[in-house]
Design a protein that fits this description.
single chain; 230 residues; alpha+beta; Immunoglobulin-like; four-stranded antiparallel β-sheet; 28% strand
């Protein structure tokens, strides 16, 4: 927004200078053809020419003012259209989120069993536009071993390439699974999804305590990079 304002100011100054220069040149040509006694000492010459060609000068200044006002109005309309387009993108874009948990299966006894040996990464699109996941990163470790910054931000880390397109609607679908370290008494799963839609590219980050997925009190104070999303 600031760069756009600076650009508008720069364009305004250039336009003002151009209009002033055009007015000066027209009056100078009129002065040459008139043969009046105005000397060429500036700025006295300019005042003399304005007086000698006041009708022409008034017309030029009025036209320049009208052109400048029209340009100001045009730039305001353009800014409004760009803002409306930006707001439309925010409303209409894809919003893909990731998460997951332990997989649950139905055993031979008909009961639900939780498999705590692995974490299943899931994805959903709760936006209004189709989104395509282009890569993902998922890690599982014990809470005591959680790094200060996500591993996927380390130099040389390569996320897993992926190509899955998800329509809007919010249906949760699995992507992959990650083994839970047997030594992890308090396992934490974290990761990031990189995705795109027709408008732009984005990312979604998540971190989940697997034993208490609905209680995030233990995550207070961690790096914001673990939950960074665009």
């Amino acid at each position: 927004m600031r760069s756009q304002f600076q650009k508008t100011i720069s364009q305004s100054l250039v336009l003002i200078f151009g209009l002033w220069l055009f007015t000066f040149l027209v009056l100078a040509l009129a002065q040459l053809d008139s043969g009046s006694s105005c000397g060429w000492q500036f700025p006295k010459w300019f005042g003399c020419v304005l007086h000698a060609h006041e009708n022409l000068a008034a017309g030029l200044i009025g036209a320049a003012g009208a052109l400048f006002a029209a340009w100001i109005a045009w730039t305001a309309v353009q800014r409004q259209l760009k803002e409306q387009e930006r707001q439309a993108r925010i409303v209409e874009r894809a919003y893909i989120s990731g998460g997951g948990g332990y997989p649950i299966c139905i055993g031979d006894d008909g009961a639900r069993h939780t498999d705590k040996t692995k974490f299943v990464l899931t994805v959903e699109n709760y936006g209004k536009t189709r989104g395509t996941v282009t890569a993902y990163a998922v890690e599982v470790c014990d809470w005591a071993d959680l790094p200060s910054q996500p591993a996927y931000l380390e130099p040389g880390y390569s996320p897993t390439p992926f190509n899955g397109t998800y329509p809007p609607g919010g249906r949760t679908l699995p992507i992959t699974s990650k083994k839970v370290p047997p030594s992890a008494s308090n396992p934490i799963a974290y990761g990031r999804l990189w995705y795109k839609d027709v408008y732009d590219k984005y990312h979604f980050s998540f971190i989940l305590p697997l034993e208490t997925p609905h209680d995030h009190n233990s995550l207070v104070g961690i790096s914001e990079a673990y939950t960074s999303s665009t």
